[in-house]
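Field reference: sequence -> structure
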Amino acid sequence: MGLGLIICAGVLAGVAWQWYRYPGRWEHAFSPRHTEARKVLSDARGAARAWERWKNQTESKARNDADAAEKAREERLHRLEQRIASLSSPGSGERVESLGELDLFQHVLVVRSASGTRSIALAGMKVRFEPGLKIHSVYCTDADGHVHRAKYPHLASSPGSEAELFDEDRVRDFAVVIENTVAQENTFRGRLPRQLKKAQSKWEEAQADASEVDAARARLQKVRQRNGTDPRGEAVEARLAEASRDWERLTGRIPPR
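Structure field:
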């Protein structure tokens, strides 16, 4: 019962569609007598659809090329803007190493203490290691002359103490790492004005240069103009119009495209 209804519904839908595509009396849509008239209209429709597909495909490709050129330009500008931002405000940079109260980053030395956390710029910093009987020290003097002493005990303050202890070689190695990172930072800061100027110059050039985008847009416009004046388009439209008029003369009804 259910399957039969489905089949009937399918048949009725097919009939309705055929009658919609070929309006008129029953014989116009289904009779073998008018097979040739239906074929002429069907072929004209097919040619028109094929032309529209080809036209849409060519315009779509040209439009995608224009969009891709615009996106590539925007991405290049964005990368340059990020580069300028990173040079203008380098921030802390990546973590290099940590020991005790000191966290060393590419551009700053972060000091952690009970009273809080503060950052010391590495540029121009002087670093000095001093061993001690109970505590090894790393003295960090910033570019303004302010000194911070980081303490690294290597003997327990009392029996059973669980405080972390630091042997001399470990502290010395860390001080060397700080000195090397400071040297890299000094080099970075010395090159920074030139690098920033270069990045800004590249951004200005990229901002002013829209040649690839303009060329892609011009190709899109050319494709649209060519398709709009292509005689093949006029021919298939004329063919479809003639087939529709013939069908209207035959049936008194205007067929859909």
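Note: Strands lie at 95-99, 102-105, 108-113, 116-121, 126-130, 135-141, 147-153.
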